[in-house]
User: What shape does this take?
Amino acid sequence: MSDEEAKKEPSVTDAEKEAEEKKKEAAEEAKTVSFQFPFILLKTKRGLNLMDRLAASRFTKHFGSISLYLFPIVGAIGFTLVLISVSLTLSNASVRNFMTSSGPLVNLLIPGLNPYVPLVYGWIALIVAMVVHEGSHGVIARYFKFRVKTSGLIFFTVVLVGAFVDIDEAELKKAPARKTSRVMAGGPMSNFIVGVATLAILMLVVSSMTPIGDGIGVTGIYEDSPANKAGIQPSDMLLAINGTKVTGIEDANNTLSHLKPGDIVTLTILHDGRQEEKSVTLAQNENTSRAFIGFVGLDSAAIKSTLDRYRTPTLMSPLLYFFLPTFASGQYQVPYSDMMHSFYTSPLGGSTYIIANLLFWLWFVNFNLAIFNALPLYPLDGGQAVRAALTSYGASKGWKENTAKRIVTVISLAIVALIVSVIAGPYLIR
Assistant: This one.
């Protein structure tokens, strides 16, 4: 054997090392549970056949191409929102006060940790978003014949914090940038599409809603007041006082101005869809000598206005769809919030409240997952796609080997600094 042939033939040691690595890899893939401190990974090969079937569809080919073009647009939206958040945090004291009073966990979109994300709707939305995201990565990877080893869920102790699809990294690194970028774009773009679709369905649900009546919506009751003693509850609607129709607080005050404390009046109330008559002995307002029923309410016009604004898109209305129905300040802006939903009816009946809230959180979580992962921040999908594109471009221009990596690192550090300023800014600026 010539020296040249001997050099080409791998040594026994190298062959053994390669076999040992493959053996370890196979053993790792065979595990259903693995620990990567502080996370627990539940792995499965179930669903891989489904990915193969979806990868073979014509839709996947077009989806991969469309995703690649939408990806930078969604990333730009995400970056713009980060800049807006930084600007508001640094310039608006009320925003900083809200952030400090809510605590740092308000920045995490995890039910049970973020006080404003409901457990049931939040977990359903988060699980759907993660499955859609990672599943799309896997489907497009299989379309390009990349090996998908396993898929699964990621837990922090007992809290579900993510999902994953284990794509062969060696194959991804060797692949052209156009293929790698499509795989990276698939996850965020699928979230974006699901988010927009669920928002559209939410708009249809809200469009089916109408006010239950033309009266004053009761939003609060004073303790030991006549209204409280009569059993009037928040979510009831006051239609008339002594037969005189009232559609707003001003109407009620005008009617009460002709009465005095101690008078007995009949209130016409709409409660759970039924009209009821309640006799109430008027009390005296602590601040004035006028007669007092003891409730806080919304005018009929305000109830109608909340619904009309939400279901009629305008240039400013997109901001409405980011109002959390769980925020105290957002209660009056969202027709399906805890405070407002009882003042409307729909052909969907009592399920309207549940359906609308579930659709909102599906939209909100998917949209946020899409724009965050589309940011050019390594190791997020956006950062990996930018790095692959720059590496490919740099190779054609004769760049040094690590130039693309350094550019992405600088961009990533800049974005991290912006995000940290949003989180830490409220505590540092007083």
Summary: The mean pLDDT is 84. The first strand starts at residue 33 and ends at 36.
